[in-house]
Amino acid sequence: MNDQTALITGASSGIGFELARCFARDDYRVVLVARHLTELQEAARLLHQEFGGVEIMLLPHDLSRPESAEHIYAETSRRGLQIDALVNDAGFGETGYFTDTDIRTELGMIQVNAASLVHLTKLYLRDMVDRNEGRILQVGSVASFAPSPCQAVYAATKAFVLSFAEAVQHELRQQKSAVTMTILCPPPTDTNFFQVAHAENTRAAARPADARLVAQEGYDALMNGAARSLPTLSAKVNFFSSLLLPDSVLATLMNTQLHPLEKELRH
């Protein structure tokens, strides 16, 4: 045990779980945060099976609830845990025309993808800056770079994450802090995102990236103090396209990726 602790949200599956694997492999104590205790317990079982005596703490919290970030911080403080690495991975999407989708789902999405991310960052970053050490990984998306019809709110939350992370990165440099913040912008990845977002029948879901590869590249960038990670060629193409093409063209391209292929948009 290297006596460092990583806290990972969205840690029960997908990229979040694979990032937890990276930390556990390197002998970090891991704090796993996700909505459902049973899924966290299964994630912990798999980590114990692979890494033996890794120390794991489970915090089942629903990050769509505004008070969750304070509760998570209070619990880690109560247990005397210093969070050396924070990973804000929790997030979900919804597919459909904005006029047809459920506003309650979208407001919950904004809370999870953006508000809770900001709140957790505020709480743990202050401690890191006081110690002048620590790392934060913000999980964005290639959707951060372009307006995305059929996933309008999701893409907007990821654009927020990108803008927020880049601004705070600059602030940390201005403060001459040793704390680093990295933003991971994965392409469509083989997780349960598409099922939750009702996007299984889209071109974006056809050839997803491997979650383990995406997580490893993000982890390496975090450990190297990099500002950004664009895992896979697909993510790099998305990024450079956003620099070259106007938003109207990007929106048209995204629409072809996110519009259902063989059935009408869900109502």
From TrEMBL:
Keywords: Oxidoreductase. Residues 4-191 form the Ketoreductase domain. InterPro entries: KR_dom, NAD(P)-bd_dom_sf, Sc_DH/Rdtase_CS, SDR_fam. SUPFAM superfamilies: NAD(P)-binding Rossmann-fold domains. One of its GO terms (molecular function) is oxidoreductase activity. GO terms for cellular component: membrane. It comes from the Bacteria. Pfam families: adh_short. Belongs to the short-chain dehydrogenases/reductases (SDR) family. This is SDR family oxidoreductase.
